[in-house]
Write a structure and sequence with these properties.
homodimer; about 350 residues; alpha/beta; Rossmann fold; 6-stranded parallel sheet; about 45% helix; elongated; disordered N terminus; DNA-binding
DNA sequence: GTGAAAGCGCTAACAC
DNA sequence: GTGTTAGCGCTTTCAC
């Protein structure tokens, strides 16, 4: 926005109201030390004139800013869109501006975005993308965030990161175990897993839960095909093709997120394979469409909006000595896409 | 973020590099008037030290900011999430921070959010929510935006508003006409429309297109039931219930967005009504899941990501004397949810 | 090509 | 309770 002399300054309001700029400042920010009568008059004058304070001047002078940053992998992904909803909700409640950044699941871009937020002197940063298994991938981000925190910035993450900060941790292991147990209980013994990159901690954890379920049932997990593709609908389609080609005997496909599950359902339908009669399909996340699919999707519910809210609340709170952890439950939701294997 | 003396200032970099603060500033911003050798050295020192410029100080001094605002009704709605994807994409390309605001489809909150963006001195504002039919509902927003523009701010909207600014206009009328014609061509004569609030211009336009199709076919539109509910999946469910109860004879339901159509499909499935054999269903928007539903959804494709990109590009461009308009095509996509009515 | 210095609009001591 | 004023960290004339 270009400079322009038509913009009102606090001085203009002060002059108009017949007070000093300091009094005007106090009146508008609600600081004590002004008589209520004067304060109200100043506010009225400001409203009349249509004055809006310059956030940059305010932040520069006060050294604090009323804005926070949210880093997501991909805002078009319903998982992140819902988390964003939660963060925006708390932000609105607290009168905070929320800056949303995309990383495109690229740890390099993630770093750029974090730098940008730091440059913007946001008061808090919520990192919502999954962490990476390889700590090196986040080493740079970590050191930047540490400098940011040393300078008084607040950070919270959603998911397992190597960042040593407050975290909201979805119970990915428990969820993975629950959904796998569900399929095993139904009697499925020839199962395939469709997953995103195993560089992501989210995926490693969900997979660990699945392995636990197998172990718990006294079954061997090592022989179960785990097909890795993009963690998206398109990736789900690809994974489904591969599974059908390489493992035509499977009676159940467990996708490690709903997006992939949707892609899988789509391929099965196109092939005329009936779900759940011939093949069961389960997902993970419980994005809102999951219940409206045909068949409705058995999945693991993660309270994403809630997780977004909690993350920002954690970040806004006074810093603790040790990182805090909030565990978000992961509940199995059984719907129509899973059933016992064909006889 | 609290003030803290551990944060690096430009002066620190300048000192370290052995130049004046002015030279350091020029070097980092790429301004002319510095020898390339010195500039490069300063940049190197800054990188080494991990210096990040304070955006507030920069914006205050320069009077310009590298950030833009995006106003959406609801980021969890895939329609807006995709538009946001487009806006974020262009923002990232141009090195701009994007601040996303929720209005919750409330014209009052919309105003608050716009004020907040103005206070943040963003360089441009993209308003992505649908406009309201009643100009009074946007009068306040309009005057605020005009003041903002007078002060050098740039504005673009997506959809039909009464704001007198650059706009990206989806062809809602044409899309409505096309999808209605499709249903009429299939032979449907007992149709119901499920729609959101007719306070929104988007809906009025889509409805007008539908009416045109009826008129073009020499049919009477006035008797067609138009059921109004929330413009969401839940609203679609409600509308479906009402349509089934009050107009059990309908052979086709046209929803004015995909979200409602998904809700409708869900109710029909629950009732055991087969789509498209017994009832055809069509939507509008072509959100990404539309093609993966069962049955896949016949709908009208709006290039939402593209619309988001175009809107920000328009806003970033030099202001024109008259508002510019970019029309976004609305193409009928026929899938499996529509078929001729039962004999 | 480089540096000194005057602001940008606001907050927060500090005076009164 | 109110006013004066010194910065916040940077950009940008204007001198040299």
């Amino acid at each position: 926005m270009e400079r322009n002399r038509t913009t009102l300054r606090l001085q203009d309001v002060a002059t108009e109201a017949g007070v000093s700029i300091a009094t005007a400042s106090r009146s508008l920010s609600g600081a004590p030390g002004v008589s209520e009568a004067v304060a109200e008059r100043v506010r009225e004058v400001a409203r009349q004139m249509g004055y809006v304070a310059n956030v940059h001047a305010r932040s520069l002078a006060a050294g604090t800013s009323r804005s926070v940053g949210l880093v997501v992998h991909e805002i078009g992904d319903p998982y992140f869109a819902e988390i964003a909803t939660g963060v925006l909700r708390v932000g609105a409640r607290e009168g905070l501006t929320v800056q949303i950044c995309h990383t495109g699941r690229d740890s390099e871009r993630e770093l750029d975005q974090i730098r940008m937020l730091v440059a913007n002197r946001v008061g808090a940063i919520v990192v919502a993308g999954s962490g990476f298994v390889d700590p090196a991938l986040q080493a740079a981000a970590k050191s930047d965030l540490q400098a940011y925190r040393a300078a008084g910035g607040r950070v919270a993450v959603i998911g397992r990161h190597h960042l040593g900060v407050d975290a909201v941790l979805p119970d990915n292991v428990g969820g993975g175990r629950a959904v796998a147990e569900h399929l095993l209980d139904l009697g499925h013994r020839r199962m395939a897993i469709a997953t995103g990159s195993r560089q992501l901690t989210t995926i490693v954890d969900r997979l660990a839960g699945v392995a636990e379920a197998f172990a718990g049932a006294g079954l061997d997990f090592s022989g179960v095909p785990v097909v890795e593709a993009e963690f998206t609908r398109a990736g789900g389609k690809l994974a489904a093709e591969r599974i059908l080609a390489d493992h035509p005997e499977v009676t159940a496909v467990l996708a490690l997120n709903d997006d992939m599950a949707i892609g899988i359902l789509s391929v099965l339908r196109a092939r005329g394979i009936r779900v759940p009669e011939q093949v069961s399909v389960a997902g993970f996340d419980d994005v809102t469409v999951a219940q409206d699919l045909a068949p409705s999707l058995t999945t693991v519910r993660l309270p994403m909006v809630d997780m977004g809210e909690q993350a920002l609340e954690l970040a806004l709170r006074d810093p603790a000595v040790r990182p805090r952890r909030r565990v978000a439950g992961a509940d199995l939701v059984v719907r129509d896409s899973t059933a016992p294997p064909p006889a």
